[in-house]
Automatic annotation (TrEMBL), chains A, B:
Start and end residues of each GST C-terminal domain: 91-222
Source organism of this protein record: Oryza glumipatula
GO biological process per UniProt: glutathione metabolic process
Protein name: glutathione transferase
Enzyme Commission numbers on file: 2.5.1.18
GO molecular function: glutathione transferase activity
Keywords recorded for this protein, A-Z: Transferase
Lineage: Eukaryota, Viridiplantae, Streptophyta, Embryophyta, Tracheophyta
Length: 233, 233
């Protein structure tokens, strides 16, 4: 399994926020990599052996060594290709603030957003949407504090928190199309709404953040499976 | 609120694994700090204003600036007092492995352990104990790989993963006393059982990891509250 040091491979799923942030981080660093699309309904042997604990994408395989968990991978990328533009800020306090908000996105925003998709009643869906909107309201305040008038959480360029949040944008749009739920609403979170437009246009994100239609299709499949499982239970 | 740069304060709860790891990290670094015990049933104004998002311990206040989320704090401590013994390894791949397992402890081991305390039926308690044991079996394998025959996950001294897991040890013992559930079992996870004895004896951990009796007392209170809340619901 040992590979050359410059062998970089990403196992991902095109609509996975967690895979998307890894790919954008590699783009920021100017690292060439081979992208391998996984089928989440039929995972490859390479995925199962590379991430035996969670069996989930993304996995970064660098020089034959696998690394899992998206934020762990992003930090690894930032540390290995340290000479290229930084993802995390340089100052320890600013780094702590960035890590805090990235964790908040994964632990507090993401579960609400996923809940909108997997809700089995309209009541539950509305509650999950409220939860997501409350988290986004926190992130709107965080943006004002972190960006300080600049384009991104990370300042003039995409940084750690931008990656964490921006990798979910196609799902916001997909959930709007699927259920009419407006999560990223210019009326409620104007700074984030404007930031989102800048994010998808950024050079490193282009071609990585997928069209929402792809998320809509997978969303329908995932929802049908969840509904079938809940009926069977 | 601005303070001197060498002003270090920790808001904690004596049995909180998350606060304990922060205190041990500061001890490893030889940093003097003021410890403020919080009452989780009546949180201080300082806690509420220092961590307005989560309103939880631990908070590290350094030179007047608050930092929340235990693993974020531990990394901050490691970066600010960089000249003192390291908590995270130096090599990016080893750092990624350490971050992976620390996240695993918080996301996969801790919820099971907490579930043993808060279970409302014996069936549920047994299921949560099984879940915790499965996570500890993974960590037993991780220990063999990370420590490579040395005393700790971090090698010869306590590191990031040691802090993440070792800060829970008094709860394992408390749950044994409360429910007869053996989570850290020398028969099942002999490496971890021996490691635990070394951990609590390490200089940096002494006086920080509390006696299990304190966790037993708080455990009874928390359980009674949860039961009352579930009856009222």
């Amino acid at each position: 399994m040992a590979g050359k040091d410059d062998d970089v491979k990403v196992l991902g799923v095109v609509v996975s926020p967690f895979a998307i942030r890894v790919r954008i981080a590699l783009n920021i660093k100017g690292v060439s990599y081979e992208y391998v699309e996984e089928d989440i309904f039929n995972k490859s042997e390479l995925l199962l052996t590379s991430n035996p604990v969670h069996k989930k994408v993304p996995v970064l395989i660098h020089g034959g060594k696998p690394i899992s968990e998206s934020l762990v991978i992003v930090q690894y990328v930032d540390e290995v290709w340290a000479a290229a533009p930084s993802v995390l800020p340089a100052d320890p306090y600013d780094r702590a603030v960035a890590r805090f908000w990235a964790a908040y996105i994964d632990n507090n925003m993401f579960p609400g957003m996923a809940g909108v998709l997997f809700a089995t009643t309209e009541e539950e869906r509305a509650a999950k949407a409220e939860e997501t909107l409350a988290a986004l309201a926190q992130l709107e305040k965080a943006f004002a504090e972190c960006a300080g008038g600049k384009a991104f959480f990370g300042g003039d360029t995409i940084g750690y928190v931008d990656l964490a949040l921006g990798s979910n944008l196609h799902w916001f749009e997909a959930l709007r199309r699927l259920f009419g739920v407006a999560l990223l609403d210019a009326g409620k979170t104007p700074l984030l709404a404007a930031w989102a437009e800048r994010f998808v246009e950024a050079e490193a994100a282009k071609g990585v953040v997928p069209d929402a239609a792809v998320a809509v299709e997978l969303g329908k499949k995932l929802q049908a499976r969840a509904a079938a499982a809940s009926t069977a239970a």
